[in-house]
Design brief:
This protein is mainly alpha-helical. Helix content is about 80%, strand content about 0%. The chain contains four helices and no strands.
Protein backbone atom coordinates (compact mmCIF):
# COMPACT_ATOMS: atom_id res chain seq x y z
CA UNK A 1 0.00 0.00 0.00
CA UNK A 2 2.77 2.46 0.86
CA UNK A 3 4.52 1.71 -2.42
CA UNK A 4 1.49 2.78 -4.46
CA UNK A 5 2.15 6.54 -4.52
CA UNK A 6 5.82 6.32 -5.57
CA UNK A 7 5.10 3.64 -8.16
CA UNK A 8 2.25 5.73 -9.56
CA UNK A 9 4.17 8.98 -9.51
CA UNK A 10 6.98 7.72 -11.74
CA UNK A 11 4.92 7.64 -14.96
CA UNK A 12 3.44 11.06 -14.16
CA UNK A 13 6.85 12.54 -13.48
CA UNK A 14 8.19 10.99 -16.69
CA UNK A 15 5.29 12.41 -18.70
CA UNK A 16 5.83 15.83 -17.13
CA UNK A 17 9.53 15.68 -18.00
CA UNK A 18 8.81 14.72 -21.59
CA UNK A 19 6.05 17.30 -22.10
CA UNK A 20 7.87 20.23 -20.55
CA UNK A 21 11.15 19.34 -22.25
CA UNK A 22 9.38 19.45 -25.60
CA UNK A 23 7.63 22.73 -24.69
CA UNK A 24 10.92 24.23 -23.54
CA UNK A 25 12.69 23.22 -26.74
CA UNK A 26 9.85 24.63 -28.84
CA UNK A 27 10.02 27.90 -26.92
CA UNK A 28 13.79 28.06 -27.32
CA UNK A 29 13.59 27.25 -31.03
CA UNK A 30 11.09 29.89 -32.16
CA UNK A 31 9.50 31.72 -29.27
CA UNK A 32 7.32 33.98 -31.44
CA UNK A 33 5.69 31.01 -33.18
CA UNK A 34 5.37 29.15 -29.87
CA UNK A 35 3.78 32.16 -28.14
CA UNK A 36 1.36 32.80 -31.01
CA UNK A 37 0.30 29.13 -31.17
CA UNK A 38 -0.18 29.08 -27.39
CA UNK A 39 -2.59 32.01 -27.64
CA UNK A 40 -4.42 30.61 -30.66
CA UNK A 41 -5.01 27.35 -28.77
CA UNK A 42 -5.87 29.04 -25.46
CA UNK A 43 -8.28 31.77 -26.54
CA UNK A 44 -11.38 31.71 -28.73
CA UNK A 45 -11.05 35.38 -29.71
CA UNK A 46 -8.25 37.65 -30.87
CA UNK A 47 -8.28 40.05 -27.93
CA UNK A 48 -4.80 38.82 -27.01
CA UNK A 49 -3.39 40.52 -30.12
CA UNK A 50 -2.01 43.78 -28.76
CA UNK A 51 -0.59 46.84 -30.46
CA UNK A 52 2.48 48.17 -28.61
CA UNK A 53 1.65 51.70 -29.80
CA UNK A 54 -1.73 51.75 -28.05
CA UNK A 55 -1.84 48.91 -25.51
CA UNK A 56 0.00 49.44 -22.23
CA UNK A 57 0.07 45.75 -21.34
CA UNK A 58 2.47 44.99 -24.19
CA UNK A 59 4.69 47.83 -22.93
CA UNK A 60 4.56 46.68 -19.31
CA UNK A 61 5.18 43.02 -20.23
CA UNK A 62 7.26 42.88 -23.42
CA UNK A 63 8.10 39.64 -25.21
CA UNK A 64 11.45 39.13 -23.39
CA UNK A 65 9.54 39.13 -20.08
CA UNK A 66 7.25 36.34 -21.34
CA UNK A 67 10.20 34.40 -22.76
CA UNK A 68 11.88 34.46 -19.35
CA UNK A 69 8.59 33.57 -17.62
CA UNK A 70 8.03 30.56 -19.90
CA UNK A 71 11.58 29.30 -19.40
CA UNK A 72 11.24 29.78 -15.65
CA UNK A 73 7.96 27.82 -15.55
CA UNK A 74 9.43 25.05 -17.70
CA UNK A 75 12.57 24.89 -15.56
CA UNK A 76 10.61 24.74 -12.32
CA UNK A 77 8.27 22.07 -13.67
CA UNK A 78 11.14 19.93 -14.91
CA UNK A 79 12.96 20.43 -11.60
CA UNK A 80 9.89 19.41 -9.58
CA UNK A 81 9.37 16.34 -11.75
CA UNK A 82 13.02 15.34 -11.31
CA UNK A 83 12.77 15.73 -7.53
CA UNK A 84 9.55 13.70 -7.44
CA UNK A 85 11.12 11.02 -9.64
CA UNK A 86 14.23 10.84 -7.44
CA UNK A 87 12.22 10.67 -4.21
CA UNK A 88 9.91 7.98 -5.61
CA UNK A 89 12.79 5.91 -6.97
CA UNK A 90 14.72 6.25 -3.71
CA UNK A 91 11.72 5.24 -1.64
CA UNK A 92 10.99 2.23 -3.86
CA UNK A 93 14.62 1.12 -3.67
CA UNK A 94 14.70 1.58 0.12
CA UNK A 95 11.41 -0.25 0.66
CA UNK A 96 12.47 -3.13 -1.62
CA UNK A 97 15.64 -3.60 0.43
CA UNK A 98 13.60 -3.45 3.61
CA UNK A 99 11.22 -6.14 2.31
CA UNK A 100 14.20 -8.30 1.31
CA UNK A 101 15.69 -8.01 4.80
CA UNK A 102 12.37 -8.86 6.40
CA UNK A 103 11.92 -11.93 4.24
CA UNK A 104 15.53 -13.03 4.86
CA UNK A 105 15.02 -12.68 8.61
CA UNK A 106 11.72 -14.57 8.35
CA UNK A 107 13.34 -17.42 6.41
CA UNK A 108 16.25 -17.69 8.83
CA UNK A 109 14.02 -17.69 11.92
Amino acid sequence: MRRRWPAGSRPGAGLTLALFTVLGLLALGDFDAFWTQFHVLSFSNDLWVLDPRTDYMSRLYPVPFWFDAVLDAVGRSVGAALVLLAVAAGYLRWSARRLERRSAVGEAG
